[in-house]
Design brief:
The protein is an alpha+beta fold and about 475 residues long. It has two domains: about 5-100, Beta Barrel (OB fold (Dihydrolipoamide Acetyltransferase, E2P)); about 125-170 and about 205-455, 2-Layer Sandwich (BirA Bifunctional Protein, domain 2). It is about 30% helix and about 25% strand. The chain has helices at about 5-10, 60-65, 115-120, 130-150, 210-220, 255-275, 280-290, 295-300, 310-320, 335-345, 400-410, 420-425, 440-445; strands spanning about 15-30, 35-40, 50-55, 70-80, 90-100, 155, 160-165, 175, 205, 220-230, 245-250, 305-310, 350-355, 375-385, 390-395, 430-440. The strands form three sheets. Strands 6-10-11-16-15-14-13-12 form an eight-stranded mixed sheet, sandwiched between helices. A five-stranded mixed β-barrel has the order 1-2-3-5-4. It has a three-stranded antiparallel sheet with strand order 7-9-8, with no helix packed on it. β2 (about 35-40) and β3 form a beta hairpin. The longest helix has 23 residues, at about 130-150. The radius of gyration is 27 Å and the shape is elongated. The protein starts with 6 loop residues before the first helix and ends in a 20-residue tail after the last helix. The chain binds 4-amino-1,4-dioxobutan-2-aminium adenosine-5'-monophosphate and magnesium ion.
C-alpha cells in the first residue's frame, strides 16, 4: 500500500515520482476545458499542492461537482514537474476520491476574512493561510523552548495547575471548588468553610509555577516549567488572556545579572530558530501581517539588548517631553505607553528594566540595600520589546529567611500557608533566580500578529470561552 506523503515533503521531492498519495482539504478549484486544477492543502506547509484532474478520469463531472472549497480529498497520482510558474512540482491525479464534501455554507471562501470574523469560527480558522502559519510557528517554538533548556541541562518539571498559594499576590485567581454555590457551608463567623471543600482548603488555578519551581531548583539546580497559567484579571487588551502558557526557568546559584543574560539568550534562540525552521511562514507574516517584521527580527538578533534600572527609566520618561496619559513619578508602575516608549523610541531595541520599587512587586523578590535617597528596590527585571511591551518578568529571589519573613508580613501573607516555601530558606538556602516568558506574547513578537487572541488556538478572555 502506498503511504501518504505530506505536501511539504512533496514540494521538496528530489525527483519526479510515479506514484504518490496526498490527502488534505481543497482550497480552490479552477476548471479548464479538459481538466481541473485542485489546490490541496494539508497544513504541513503554507503552500498547497496543485493537482491536475483530467476529464478522462471515471466520474470526472460528479467528482468535480463534489470538489468544492473545504472538501477533503485523497489523491493518488504522479508527481511531475509543474508547467506553471511558482511551483516545482504538481500532481496528475490517477485516483481521486472525495472523502468529505463541504456544502455551500463553508465560511472560508476565497475572499479575505477579518480576524474578528475568524475568531468566531476558531474551529475552522486553522484552515486559513494565516492561522496555519501561526500554529506551525507555535508548535515549533514549543519545541525550541525544550531544546534551549535541555541543551543547557535545565530539567523539565511539571508544576501543579491547582494550587493553594497565590504566587503573584495579586488575587487574580480562578477558584477551584466542588462546593454547591447555592448551599455553601459556613463557619462560625459566617465565612465560607473551605475545610469542607474538595481539597479541604481554598484552591485556585495557578497564576505561575514559580514557587513550586523554586523547590525543584533548590534540589536539581536548574529547572523549567512550561504550561498553562490562569489570570482572572479583567483586562480587555490585545496582550492579555485569561488562560495563557508560560515558560518559567528557575536556577540555583544564579543572580539577577545571570537571569537577565539567560532571558536575552533565550529570546534570541527562539527568534533564530523561527528564522531557520519557519522561514516560509515568517515570509508570509512579513508580506501580509507586518512589513517591518523581518528587519525587526534581524535587528534584535544582531544587537545586545539594552539594560536600564527602573530609576533611570523614570528619568528617561520624565525627560521625554511627552504628554503621557498617566504621568510618571518614582514609585509608579510603568504603563504600557511607557514600556513601549522605552523600547520603541528611546532604546529602539529590546530593553531590560531592573531594580523596581519594592512596593510594586511580590513578596518573593530579593530586597536591595536602600539607595542614596533611602528608596527601597527589589532585584526584579522586566524585558520589554518593541510593539508589545513586557514579554518577560523575573527576579532574583529572596534567599534570606528573616528578610523573606518580613516581606511576607509586609504583604499580609500567612507564613503557615507558605511554610514549605519558607523551608527552602531554612535548609541549605542558595541565591537563585528565574523568570516567566509569556508564550503567546513571544509568538506575537515572532509573527507580528497584533492580538493575543490570534496566536492561541482557543482564546479565553473576559466574557469569552467559546469552543
Ligand atoms: O510578570 P509575571 O506576572 O511574572 C510571574 O508570574 C513570575 N512568577 C514569573 C517568574 O519569575 N517565574 O508574568 C510573566 C509573563 C509576563 O511577562 C507576560 O509575558 C506574561 O507572563 N503574562 C501574560 N500573558 C498573557 N496574558 C496575561 N494575562 C499575562 N500576564 C502575564
Ligand atoms: Mg510582570
Amino acid at each position: 500500500m502506498l503511504t501518504r506523503t505530506l505536501v511539504k515533503d512533496a514540494h521538496n521531492a528530489p525527483a519526479a515520482a510515479d506514484a504518490i498519495l496526498l490527502q488534505g482539504w481543497i482550497r480552490t478549484r479552477r476548471d479548464a476545458k479538459t481538466f481541473s486544477f485542485v489546490e490541496l492543502n494539508d497544513g504541513s506547509c503554507l503552500k498547497g499542492m496543485q493537482v491536475i484532474v483530467n476529464d478522462s478520469l471515471p466520474d470526472y463531472a460528479e467528482l468535480m461537482r463534489r470538489s468544492t472549497t473545504g472538501a477533503s480529498v485523497s489523491v493518488r497520482g504522479k508527481l511531475v514537474p509543474s508547467q506553471g510558474a511558482g511551483q516545482k512540482w504538481e500532481v496528475v491525479a490517477e485516483k481521486y476520491a472525495v472523502l468529505g464534501e463541504a456544502d455551500a455554507s463553508y465560511p472560508l471562501q476565497k475572499k479575505g476574512h477579518s480576524l474578528e470574523f475568524l475568531r468566531e469560527i476558531a474551529h475552522l480558522r486553522p484552515r486559513t493561510n494565516l492561522f496555519g502559519a501561526v500554529f506551525r510557528v507555535r508548535s515549533r517554538m514549543a519545541y525550541a523552548i525544550h531544546q534551549f533548556f535541555q541543551e543547557r541541562d535545565f530539567l523539565y518539571v511539571h508544576t501543579p495547575i491547582i494550587t493553594a498559594s497565590d504566587c503573584e499576590g495579586a488575587g487574580e485567581m480562578f477558584g477551584v471548588s466542588t462546593l454547591d454555590p447555592l448551599n455553601l457551608p459556613r463557619d462560625a463567623e459566617g465565612n465560607i468553610d473551605y475545610a469542607q471543600d474538595f481539597f479541604g482548603k481554598k484552591t485556585s488555578l495557578t497564576v505561575s509555577g514559580q514557587l513550586e519551581g523554586e523547590t525543584f531548583a533548590c534540589a536539581l539546580s536548574s529547572i523549567y516549567t512550561f504550561g498553562p497559567t490562569f489570570r482572572a484579571e479583567n483586562s480587555h487588551t490585545s496582550r492579555h488572556a485569561s488562560e495563557f502558557w508560560m515558560v518559567e526557568p528557575e536556577a540555583a546559584f544564579l543572580d539577577l545579572e545571570g537571569d537577565m543574560q539567560l532571558a536575552e539568550d533565550f529570546v534570541k534562540h527562539l527568534i533564530r530558530d523561527a528564522r531557520e525552521h519557519c522561514a516560509a511562514d515568517l515570509e508570509f507574516f512579513g508580506k501580509f501581517v507586518d512589513k517591518e517584521l523581518s528587519a525587526r527580527l534581524d535587528f534584535v538578533l544582531e544587537r545586545p539588548f539594552q539594560r536600564c534600572s527602573y530609576t533611570e527609566a523614570i528619568d528617561i520618561l520624565q525627560a521625554a517631553g511627552k504628554k503621557w496619559e498617566k504621568n510618571v513619578a518614582w514609585g509608579d508602575n510603568l504603563q504600557s505607553e511607557h514600556e513601549r516608549y522605552l523600547s520603541e523610541e528611546h532604546f529602539k531595541c529590546p530593553v531590560t528594566v531592573y531594580n523596581y520599587p519594592r512596593s510594586l512587586k511580590p513578596f518573593y523578590m530579593k530586597v536591595n540595600a536602600p539607595d542614596a535617597a533611602g528608596r527601597e528596590t527589589v532585584r526584579a527585571m522586566d524585558l520589554l520589546v518593541p510593539g508589545i511591551g513586557e514579554i518577560i518578568g523575573g527576579s532574583q529571589r529572596e534567599e534570606n529567611l528573616e528578610v523573606l519573613r518580613e516581606n511576607m508580613r509586609h504583604h499580609n501573607l500567612n507564613e503557615q500557608d507558605y511554610s514549605w516555601y519558607v523551608d527552602l530558606r531554612r535548609y541549605g538556602s542558595v541565591p537563585h533566580a528565574g523568570f516567566g516568558l509569556g508564550f503567546e506574547r513571544m509568538l506575537m513578537f515572532v509573527t507580528g500578529v497584533a492580538n493575543i487572541r490570534d496566536v492561541i488556538p482557543f482564546a479565553r478572555t473576559p466574557g469569552n470561552a467559546a469552543f
